[in-house]
Amino acid sequence: xxxxxxxxxxxxxxxxxxxxxxxxxxxxxxxxxxxxxxxxxxxxxxxxxxxxxxxxxxxxxxxxxxxxxxxxxxxxxxxxxxxxxxxxxxxxxxxxxxxxxxxxxxxxxxxxxxxxxxxxxxxxxxxxxxxxxxxxxxxxxxxxxxxxxxxxxxxxxxxxxxxxxxxxxxxxxxxxxxxxxxxxxxxxxxxxxxxxxxxxxxxxxxxxxxxxxxxxxxxxxxxxxxxxxxxxxxxxxxxxxxxxxxxxxxx
Length: 251
Description:
Blueprint: H1 17-30, H2 37-43, H3 47-52, H4 62-83, H5 89-99, H6 102-111, H7 122-126, H8 133-151, H9 153-163, H10 165-169, H11 179-190, E1 195-203, E2 210-217, E3 220-227, H12 230-250
Antiparallel strand pairs: 1-2, 2-3
């Protein structure tokens, strides 16, 4: 007697109309429309929600988070490689680590309001899962994974150009590459004089100004840097000064 085995064809669960409407609103806010909305839904579906809706066969976002993590790291690596040709491999790695880390991803997710769209189980909801840092960071990466599968790498980069890369440009992560402090310590160790920073030029219109800064040690120029902010220009000048002092020490 043959045994009739039912094949478990996996189909996406059916969302409530209110949830679908919320995701429609999210797509409008981001100006990104998914070709396959089920990928977007999955990106925001926590495992606790899946566990409470087994009969509806929802899929959680864990695999998308795995993919999104890799896509995000590649995209950020490429951006930093192109933007900072003077940085060493170690410096690039350090800066990337500050960008692609849980606190930063939580910041991005919160700014986009991702928390209110997460599909959570009742237990997770009651224990504050919607604001849990690790959960928010995972959702941000899941969204990137979903967008990559839906539309490819170019739209992912465009999305990051909107929400992430501008923060790099204004020096939001410069604390991990604080060349001014490093230069100060180097000079103090050798007690060779006092450092001074001076803006020597401002290029371009007010809305897109480039500052040029010189750092000097006891009236001797050590480096000239430029940047979209005075802080960025000073950091670049300090970085070049460190390199100059290190090269002189090796001679």
